[in-house]
Amino acid sequence: MPPMPTRQAWARRQVAIIAGVPVHPFEVIVKKFLLVLVVVCTAAACQKSSPPAGQDAVQAGSTAAASPAPPATPTAGTSPGSPADSSGDVDLGAGLAAAATQAPPPSGGAAGAVKPVPAQLPDVLARVNNEAVSRGEFERAVSVLERRAGRPVPADQRDRVFRGVLDNLIGIHLLAQEAERRKVTVADTEVDQRIDALKKQFKSEDEFKKALTDRGVSLATLRTESRKELAVAKMLEAEIKPKISVTDGDVKAFYDKNPEQFQQPESFRASHILIRVESTATPEQKKDARSKAEALLKQVQAGGDFAALAREHSQDGSASNGGDLNYFGRGQMVPAFEQAVVALKPGEVSGVVESPFGFHIIKLTDHRQPRTVPLAEASGRIGQFLVMQAQQREMVDFVRALRAKGKVEVLI
């Protein structure tokens, strides 16, 4: 059973399949469909998790992105403090990869016998009920996939991945055509809300426009595609939602069959205030940084609000969260930081702790012993996962039916 991301992680992973963010509940299902076949084709070759943000200045290992936090400092794998990926919770399984196994093999042959894709692509790669699937939209979809993977499509996977992308685009056209046939309407205000949601992912209007330019997408095209996707989402909600039912018995059965998914190791939750010291700092600069940290420690010891002081003074991505690093396990923080944390009891505050990143003041807020997450605590997210899984199956069946009754010509 693959790991199931938290609710926030689901949302983040579905962002910008072509260009946009899901704002309608069933739009997530639309977004997922676009990757169903690609996940099957590239699970071993090109998949890569999105790097989470924050908590960048206390973890050891490889570099991770931390926007809009200060420039990222070394981290170890997944950031344990990221609200999208840990929250002290157990990863419970992943619907996308599980549902992907329901998908048909890429066009051009059965699984294991994929027809080669020509090196030079024609202007039109397929026709769906006489509607062209253009090279431009295909190349944009491949570009999105490569950005998500963090690398180009491997040469030995090109045929299978490209066939998967083409099948996804055929599915998109079939869904959009069916929504139009059913006369599903989307108000301008709904499109505006979706564009606004996308803009909020960027620091400025100029950065948003640059992203569109880099992807070869105009604002007019984005609005048109957004309207289509919202129409499809509405149609799917009407078509699929009434068919989905997940009972308490289903949830318990999943819990009982997957005990390994609910084992939680020892974890700590801490907040910190960091006065950063660069590796090139002079002895005088280092002395000044320590003095600032000691002054802040005195304020904390005098009853100052730790979170407020962190927001105002900490020089780390966690400052906006009041210094909260969320839950993390042993081995995920640099040694000096971990040693200080392990020595604390919940509610206690450390002295000034020096690490390669500077000077920390650490407050331990919780210490969890190894445990099995109880069903009552896990049931909500298990239910969400099972619903998403069922929706995915219904989605694949629905598109198969549309394809069977339509006219699809693959031209490569």
Taking all Cα atoms into account, the compactness measure Rg is: 24 Å
Strand order of the largest sheet: 5-4-7-6
CATH names the topology of the largest domain as Triger factor/SurA peptide-binding fold
CATH architecture of the largest domain: Orthogonal Bundle
Name of the level-1 CATH class of the largest domain = Mainly Alpha
CATH superfamily of the largest domain: Porin chaperone SurA, peptide-binding domain
Order of helices and strands: HHHEEHHHHHHEEHHEHEEEHE
Q: How much strand? A: 5-15%
Number-wise, the strands total 9
Question: Which structural class best describes the helix and strand composition?
Answer: alpha+beta
Number of helices: 13
Principal-axis shape: elongated
What is the average of the pLDDT values? 77
Could you give the distance between the termini? 35 Å
Plain-language structure description:
The structure is a single chain. The chain is built from 13 helices and 9 strands. The strands form 3 sheets. Strands 5-4-7-6 form a 4-stranded antiparallel β-sheet, with helices on both faces. It has 2 domains: 7-249 and 375-410, Triger factor/SurA peptide-binding fold (Orthogonal Bundle), CATH 1.10.4030; 266-369, Chitinase A, domain 3. It has helices at 7-13, 27-42, 95-100, 135-149, 158-181, 188-199, 205-214, 219-240, 248-257, 283-301, 306-313, 335-342, 375-405; strands at residues 124-128, 131-134, 263-264, 267-276, 324-328, 349-355, 358-368, 371-372, 408-410. The two termini are 35 Å apart. The longest helix has 31 residues, at 375-405. With 412 residues, the protein is of the alpha+beta class. Helix 2 crosses helix 13.
